[in-house]
Amino acid sequence: MHKFRARLTLIFIVLIGSSVLIAGLFMAQVLRESHIEALKTNMQRELRIILVTMDWNKGGTEAEQLAYYGEQVNRLRQSADARVTYIRSDGKVLGDSDHNPEDMDNHLQRKEIIEAEQTGVAGSDIRYSTTIQRNMLYVVVPVKNGTLTKGYVRLSMSLEEVEASILRVWYVLLFGLLAVFIIAALISFRVAWGITRPIEMITKVARQITNMDYKARVNVKKKDEIGQLGQALNRMADSLQLQMDRIQEDESRLKSVLDNMISGVMMIDRDSKIVLLNRSAEDILGFSVQELLGKKFDEAKQQFEFTQLIQECIDLREHIRDEMIFYYPSERILEINLSPISLNENEWAGVLIVLHDITAVRRLERMRSEFVANVSHELKTPIAAVKGFAETLLAGALNDKETAKSFLQIIFDESERLNRLIGDILELSKIESKRIPLQFSPVSVNTFVSNCVHVMTSEAKKKSIELEMQVEEDLYIEADEDRLRQILINLLSNGINYTPEGGKVKIKVESIFHGAEGMDNERIRMTITDTGIGIPKKDLPRIFERFYRVDKARSRSSGGTGLGLSIVKHLVELHKGSIRVESEVGMGTKFFIELPVIQY
């Protein structure tokens, strides 16, 4: 833009300077011509006066004429202050005020003489005089006797004064031209700056908009074409900023949706490169965006089956759905949906891959299947027993009172077990479906634990098992007291059932803090410890599953349904707490329950 301003300034200077120079040349020429014309007019006037005041028809010999005319021109030289020459009609110089006539050439072919002869009035010429070696102005009038030309009287004057005057004009013109050039340069620069400055601003703003700075604006207050261009650029920037804000907002929404989707989303472009990967896809595939983005899918260190599935979709360009087991970073079952992307009918854009982790769904389906099988199995045993003994009684065993009584007791026990099983199944179903609203209220932990221990005392005494409690003083918790009692009694009952005679079951309750100490972070921890048979390590992960038993024979003989710990876990989670277990075979078991003091 500075080069354009310099060129524009130079153009203005050249235009203004050329105009002034041409005007000066024209003025100097006109001044010179007007000055010379004025001299010609004055000299003609003087010549006519000279013709009137003197006799130019002198006769005699040539010598007499030379002497006479020489005297006359010398006298006239003093009054006219100019060179005076008398020339005969044949061109012979008879008298000259500055030179000897006899040494002078014939003047008949001189331009001024010819012009005077042709016009009959006057003639003039400007030429360099070799006699006096300067530019001279010659003016001639013919001397007539009637219609006959007797000779010519010529005045000649040096143009030195005229040339000096013209030279002064040139000096003035040059100095004026220099001043005009300086003023023209300043004015031209100011005009060029006024023209180019808004263009520079517009160019700068356009460059900023090109660099995605859509907040840049042109501050042009003019109403001319440049101002209109600036306003148009501002309106374009407003439109671009609005569109970019919408695009960024849509992009932010899309990114937020993708990042918060449970399903993994992956996109492969037409060059087979991975161009999109959301957070869930990173977790599922076990690689970060930095590791996969920009790489070809067959170079991304993925399972061979997965890579083959992508290649198949690219080759067929059809939607493909499949289930696959991924072993890295952990074993998972994934539902894979591959959809080809086309911008139009003929332009291929890539593949969109959606990954659903259906491990939990398949596990749930397996658990449901196992649940149905377990329920069927658990129901089959007491029903078979009831049916078998009932058939025996019907076959005649009723006549034997002792046998009949024994069989009826067995039928009663099995029906009780069946009733407990069905009751626990219904209870678990209600808890899982959250159809049982919890009634939270402040609970004194010390009193609560004492009551639960008192309830289990008689059962513990049957096996000579010591019950011990250790509870901090003044400890309170907000909970559903009935459900909390169900949790604690279930765990105490398990501890008593699986502890040999003479063993010990202990419950310890203490307050703990997570993070900075404060009421919001305070929790209580219940630890139920027994000295029983323990749980093998391989069974610990499944101990809270429905109908899962470590020792199935002993569990049934103890009267358990296999649903107690599952009910405990669900109730703890409804209290926004957590439960875990530690155990060693032959050394006993520890259950840890952590509950928040205040429910939210």
Descriptive terms for the model:
single chain; 600 residues; alpha+beta; five-stranded antiparallel β-sheet; 17 strands; rod-shaped
Task: Please characterize this protein's 3D structure.
With 600 residues, the protein is of the alpha+beta class. It contains 14 helices and 17 strands. Helix 10 runs parallel beside helix 14. The longest helix is centred in the first third of the chain and has 52 residues. It starts with a helix and ends with a strand.
Task: Describe the SSE topology.
Elements: H1 2-53, H2 62-80, E1 83-88, E2 93-96, H3 111-119, E3 123-129, E4 134-145, E5 148-158, H4 160-210, H5 225-260, E6 264-269, E7 274-277, H6 279-285, H7 289-292, H8 304-316, E8 320-326, E9 332-342, E10 348-357, H9 359-394, H10 401-432, E11 441-444, H11 445-462, E12 466-471, E13 476-479, H12 481-497, E14 504-513, E15 522-530, H13 552-557, H14 564-574, E16 578-584, E17 588-596
Parallel strand pairs: 12-14
Antiparallel strand pairs: 1-2, 1-5, 3-4, 4-5, 6-7, 6-10, 8-9, 9-10, 11-13, 14-15, 15-17, 16-17
Summarize the structure.
The chain is an alpha+beta fold and 600 residues long. Helix content is 52%, strand content 21%.
User: Radius of gyration over alpha carbons?
Assistant: 64 Å
The major beta sheet can be summarized as: 5 strands, antiparallel
Give average pLDDT, whole number: 80
Q: Major sheet: order of its strands?
A: 2-1-5-4-3
Give me the secondary-structure category. Answer: alpha+beta
Distance between the termini: 68 Å
Number of strands: 17
Number of helices: 14
Task: Please state roughly what percent of the residues sit in beta strands, choosing from under 5%, 5-15%, 15-25%, 25-35%, 35-45% or over 45%.
Answer: 15-25%
Regions with little confidence, pLDDT below 50 for 5+ residues? 553-559
- Portion of residues within helices: 40-55%
Outline type: rod-shaped
